[in-house]
Design a protein that fits this description.
The structure holds three protein chains of three kinds.
Chain A lengths: L5 H28 L14 E2 L2 H9 L4 H8 L2 E3 L2 H8 L5 H10 L4 E2 L2 H9 L8 H11 E2 L5 E2 L2 H10 L6 H11 L8 H8 L1 H34 L3 H16 L2 H12 L4 H7 L8 H4 L1 H26 L3 H9 L4 H12 L1 H17 L2 H6 L11 H9 L9 H25 L14
Antiparallel strand pairs in A: 1-5, 2-3, 2-4
Chain B lengths: L2 E10 L2 E11 L4 E5 L6 H9 L6 E6 L2 E2 L5 H4 L1 E4 L11 H11 L4 H14 L15 H13 L5 E5 L7 H18 L2 E6 L2 H7 L2 E6 L2 E6 L1 H6 L4 H6 L6 E8 L2 E3 L4 E3 L2 H4 L8 E6 L4 E2 L6 E10 L3 E8 L4 E7 L9 E6 L5 E4 L17
Parallel strand pairs in B: 3-8, 3-9, 6-7, 7-8
Antiparallel strand pairs in B: 1-2, 1-4, 4-5, 9-10, 11-12, 11-14, 12-13, 14-20, 15-19, 16-17, 16-19, 17-18
Chain C lengths: L3 H29 L1 E2 L9 E2 L17 H32 L5 H13 L6 H10 L6 H26 L2 H9 L4 H9 L4 H16 L3 H6 L8 H9 L7 H34 L4
Antiparallel strand pairs in C: 1-2
Classes of the chains: A mainly alpha, B alpha+beta, C mainly alpha.
Chain lengths: 432, 363, 276
């Protein structure tokens, strides 16, 4: 027997969890985007329900009118089920016995006909109440009925003596089927919905501004300023800017909410200028989401840029000053050109994170007011996982995510080619 | 342009790196700052070009005090040890950088870059980037970049340290040639005595933040001011031996010989502690018999052979002789020294016998 | 290059830029222990009243201790899984010969920069399908799996720095590759293991979206969901209480941060940040 190499044992657990819970979701996002899955369809049920909607749809359909009538009709059937209910009721025993002997298998299309048949019995029911009990026990209708299997529905049709051709039966099953089905409607909706365009523009604005002002802009300024500072000072500022990133997101947003609230610091300071206490977050939702995200996002660029600048040999800057370049010229002509790859890396990497993350927006403005700050990722989240109007549309949410996933895949491949192509693919020298 | 350092001191925090240094460099002169690593020579260079501030004293270019003139305005050309070429710029852009910063006309820049790159023979490399150049080529680019703005002073920080031996030999003469052609005042920082001696007009030898001696290379060799200079200059190095003066005789535990008139006339006291220094070429079988011991180690060098002789008290005297190996390891010998060419130092290491006369050894 | 003037200007600019952070965190610590004043930003007096949540259960909320326990279990398990699986897989990718090694590394890198948040909806549906929805186990597995590509990449980097000679002499001495890994190589990368544990602890301790979406019920709540619940209540928000809960919540992270912020700087610098 060949021994399984150690490498497989070492790789297997990680590979299994990554494939199941990372790669599979990527694929399934595409799969789900072609379904009508939502909270009212459930995610696996194959149920057939004669709901009001289904009946209405059947009425408008090409279904044979007679069959349609039979479907919506009520019927009174003496089958084993109704006889069982009758036998357990308080109706006189002799009446019960007579019904069991004479009526099984009979079907009446109206209550009147049922009552007439009952009246003809020798031991006819003594009161109207008894008749009503029988009526209730025997009444059968497809209206409101729910079937889990198609075969159950066939049995019911037989019992009700409805004869349906295969074509009509298929039509009926299709209309009454409530479970999700395959569809491309989601994609058409993404493109036709006027909301999409607005949210798309929001996303663009949000990403551009946050990236430009903070994740790259502010990060670069901090990195440059600390670069020309003493070690102690620069360490202090860099550690300070790292705090938002390690703070739990909920807490971090909580601090901002307090700062911007009626009773918060900004209202207090603005009070000096005669401005009444305001909820600044509601007043300036755009500033809010950009600033909140920006103060977290700046730290990564700051660290990357700083270490890239540290890597520039000091003598280059000495040479530049000797050559006559002042601080600003050194920055522009020596430092910035030499850290252009890190800048490009941060810009593209953070574009991706900003596009897909919605945590801080959800916690602060939640896309409001009036969906003003709703961005694409948050829109997908709201559509599929959390909204106030109840129906969570998983399929449509997945479709919205597909957009992000596709961008993510393309961007990741691009980075791979652009930045990490020098991956050390050295073969291991020990050969087993 | 003349460069003057007056009582120049430099501290890094509490650490005193340079203390009261005086140095005058004549216009058009090339001076080497020579010393072991950590002696403060690079610090001095960086103070002259303004990368470091000075703690006290004055630095003058000509008669202008430039203590507070920012680096950018000092107009010095510097060749850094690792050349410090800007990796993101082409060679042309590297050389043109100081001119661009000064907002010179483009056509003028073109012309200057052409002219200067031809001077060192790199005009065919102008469109490349530094990383595609060999060490020697980078060296030349750095030199040209330093020279192109016609600086007051050219400063070079170990310019040959990163080159291989053959190239180093060529660049030594080339740098010297360019310096002499342009007539620029230059300072060369190096730890390599051969480099210092072969390239400069004068050497300032430094130790512990102080200049030990400033003189021409020849003088430095034949008339070292103290044991540090004597020991630092000369390869193979000088041998030292301790003893006292007794009745015109130098007396050590395993050696005794009569000192020359010239030495004695310097007023040495009887019983004074002395240290003699003898360069290996003045220790020879034909000179006498005071060096008595056994051969500890032999280093054949082809043209010459180097012998380490262990005297009976364990001290070692080195001798170099022309020709191939004549003696065996462990062999007991009785050699002598050329008494005229012995350096004598007092107990503080100061030279009290003037110099070597360089009389040809009796071979 | 000593520039005293420009240095002072830089410090001032940086200070102004950082002002919001100073204010945010200053009032964080201030408000937790003080009674707010109605007409001033400065508090009236010292108090511990905001810490009542430690002893009494807030109305409509699970006990803070159960929630803390949940958070500890969540973070602890995630750290453990990530650590074990990354250190084995990282070793395999760094040192062991296997087919498709370069393709595996490429995929890993791809996932490393892939924005995993966008998979949330698919993950939600998958967990429902396999019956792990609304359970701590489900969130733990998901969080750990999403952290793995990063963890493996970091560990691979640490393994790459261990000299091959150690391994070769180990194999020469007759040890199996497993023994070599366990006895000789793992001790070399303790700093890496420490760095990865700190990083994944901070990341999972602060995780909000996954537990919020995948395990929302009260019995499974983590501190992030608990605090977010308090924050989203429609009645006037009691910031003193919330910040006290927040301080309680952030305490472990803060302790880690104080001792390891320089190391953290390096990990985030390694391309770790998955947040915006």
């Amino acid at each position: 027997m060949k021994r399984i190499p150690l490498a497989y044992w070492f790789l297997l657990p990680a590979a299994v969890s990554i494939i199941l819970f990372y790669v599979l979701p990527v694929i399934l996002t595409f799969v789900f985007s072609f379904t009508s899955m939502a909270s009212d369809t459930g995610i696996y049920g194959n149920h057939y329900v004669y709901s009001k909607n289904a009946i209405r749809a059947l009425e408008k359909s090409t279904l044979n009118r007679d069959i349609f009538k039979k479907i919506i009709e009520r019927k009174y059937v003496f089958d084993s089920e109704s006889l069982k209910i009758i036998s357990q009721s308080k109706i006189e025993k002799k009446t019960q016995t007579e019904i069991e002997e004479t009526l099984p298998g009979t079907v009446y299309s109206t209550e009147k006909a049922l009552f007439e048949a009952l009246d003809k019995l020798k031991n006819k029911p003594r009161s109207f109440r008894d008749k009503k009990i029988i009526s209730r026990a025997t009444i059968r209708s497809l209206n409101g009925e729910e079937f889990i299997e198609i075969s159950e529905m066939r049995v019911a049709f037989e019992k009700l003596q409805i004869e349906v051709g295969e074509e009509d039966f298929d039509l009926i099953t299709e209309v009454t089927n409530t479970s999700w089905h395959w569809t491309t409607k989601n994609y058409r909706e993404v493109f036709s919905n006027p909301d999409s365009w607005r949210i798309f523009k929001n996303t663009g604005l949000y990403v551009t501004l946050t990236l430009g002002l903070f994740n790259v802009g502010c990060a670069l300024i901090i990195a440059l300023l600390t670069f020309y500072m003493s070690l102690g000072q620069s360490k202090f500022f860099r550690s300070l800017w790292l705090i938002p990133r390690i703070s739990p997101s909920v807490l971090y947003v909580l601090l901002w909410r307090d700062l911007m609230d009626h009773s918060g610091f900004i209202s207090y300071v603005m009070g000096y200028f005669g401005v009444a206490p305001t909820n600044w977050m509601g007043e300036f939702p755009w500033v809010t989401i950009i600033v909140i995200n920006g103060f977290v996002g700046a730290s990564m660029g700051m660290i990357i840029f700083s270490s890239a600048m540290q890597a520039i040999p000091k003598s280059l800057l000495y040479a530049a000053s000797v050559d006559g370049a002042y601080m600003w010229q050194q920055i522009r002509r020596i430092i910035l050109p030499q850290i252009r790859w890190p800048i490009l890396f941060i810009a593209s990497y953070q574009t991706l994170s900003l596009l897909t993350s919605f945590e801080y927006i959800q916690l602060s403005t939640d896309g409001g007011p009036a969906r003003d700050t709703e961005v694409w990722a948050l829109h997908a989240f709201h559509t599929a996982l959390s909204n106030y109007w109840g129906n969570l549309r998983y399929g449509f949410g997945a479709t919205l995510s597909v957009v992000l996933v596709v961008i993510g895949i393309i961007a990741s491949i691009t980075y791979l080619k652009l930045f990490k192509f020098q991956v050390l693919l050295q073969e291991p020298p020990i050969e087993n | 342009m003349k460069i003057i350092l007056k009582k120049f001191s430099k501290n890094f925090g509490q650490v005193e790196v340079i203390k009261d240094m005086d140095l005058e460099i004549e216009s058009g002169e090339m001076v080497a700052l020579l010393g072991p690593s950590g002696c403060g020579k690079t610090t001095t260079l960086f103070a002259i070009c303004g990368i470091h501030n000075i703690t006290s004293g004055q630095i003058l270019f000509g008669d202008r005090v430039i203590n507070n003139v920012p680096t950018q305005e000092r107009n010095v050309g510097v060749v850094f040890q690792n050349y410090a070429l800007y990796p993101h710029l082409t060679i042309y852009e590297n050389i043109a950088f100081p001119l661009r910063i000064r907002k010179m006309e483009k056509s003028e820049i073109d012309q200057l870059v052409q002219e200067y790159s031809e001077m060192v023979g790199i005009s065919n490399l102008l469109s490349r980037r530094p990383m595609h150049l060999s060490g020697g080529q980078q060296q030349r680019v750095a030199l040209v970049r330093a020279l192109i703005r016609k600086p007051n002073v050219l400063l070079m920080d170990e310019p040959l340290a990163n080159l291989d031996a053959a190239l180093r030999l060529r660049m030594r003469s080339e740098i010297r040639r360019i310096q002499q052609e342009t007539g620029i005042t230059a300072i060369l920082v190096t730890h390599d005595q051969v480099e210092a001696m072969s390239m400069s007009d004068r050497i300032a030898i430094m130790n512990d933040g102080k200049i030990q001696q400033i003189s021409t290379p020849t003088e430095m060799y034949s008339d070292p001011k103290n044991t540090f200079v004597a020991g630092f200059i000369g390869n193979p190095p000088i041998s030292f031996y301790n003893g006292v003066l007794q009745k015109n005789y130098f007396v050590g535990t395993a050696m005794k010989f009569e000192l020359s008139e010239a030495t004695l006339s310097n007023g040495i006291q009887e019983e004074q502690k002395l240290e003699i220094g003898v360069r290996p070429e003045y220790v020879h079988p034909n000179f006498g018999d005071e060096v008595e011991g056994k051969i500890l180690f032999i280093e054949p060098q082809g043209r010459e052979t180097l012998y380490d002789i262990e005297l009976d008290d364990g001290q070692v005297i080195r001798s170099i002789q022309m020709g191939s190996q004549q003696y065996q390891m462990g062999e007991r010998i009785q050699w002598g020294m050329d008494h005229k060419n012995i350096l004598v130092f007092d107990e503080n290491g100061e030279n009290i016998f003037s110099k070597l006369y360089g009389t040809s050894p009796k071979l | 290059m000593e520039k005293h003037n420009s240095n002072r200007i830089s410090t001032i600019i940086l200070f102004v830029l950082s002002l919001p952070l100073f204010i945010l965190y200053f009032f964080f610590f201030l408000d937790v222990f003080t009674v707010p004043s109605t007409d001033s930003i400065w508090p009236e007096s010292f108090t511990l009243v905001h810490w009542r949540f430690l002893t009494e259960t807030l109305s409509g909320k699970p006990s803070i201790w159960i929630t803390t326990l949940n958070t500890l279990i969540f973070s602890g398990c995630v750290v453990a899984i990530v650590l074990v699986l990354s250190s084995t897989a990282g070793y395999a990718l760094s040192r062991l010969k296997m087919p498709y090694r370069s393709q595996l590394l490429g995929t890993l890198l791809l996932l490393h920069s892939f924005p995993s948040v966008s998979l949330l909806i698919a993950i939600f549906i998958i967990l429902q399908m396999i019956g792990l929805y609304d359970s701590l186990v489900g969130v733990i597995i998901i969080k750990a799996s999403l952290e793995l590509p990063f963890g493996i990449w970091i560990m691979k980097g640490f393994y790459d720095t261990v000299p091959w000679e150690i391994e070769m002499s180990g194999v020469q001495d007759g040890a199996s590759r497993f023994t070599v890994w366990y006895k000789l190589i793992l001790p070399q990368i303790y700093p890496g293991l420490a760095a990865l544990s700190i990083f994944s602890f901070i990341s999972s301790w602060g995780e909000y979206v996954l537990p919020f979406v995948l395990a929302p019920s009260a019995e499974q709540q983590t501190l992030s969901v608990y605090l977010a619940g308090l924050l989203s209540e429609t009645t006037a928000v009691d910031y003193g209480l919330l910040k006290a809960v927040g301080l309680f919540y952030m305490l472990p992270v803060m302790i880690f941060y104080i001792f390891t912020h320089e190391k953290l700087m390096n990990i985030y610098g390694g391309g770790g940040g998955s947040k915006g």
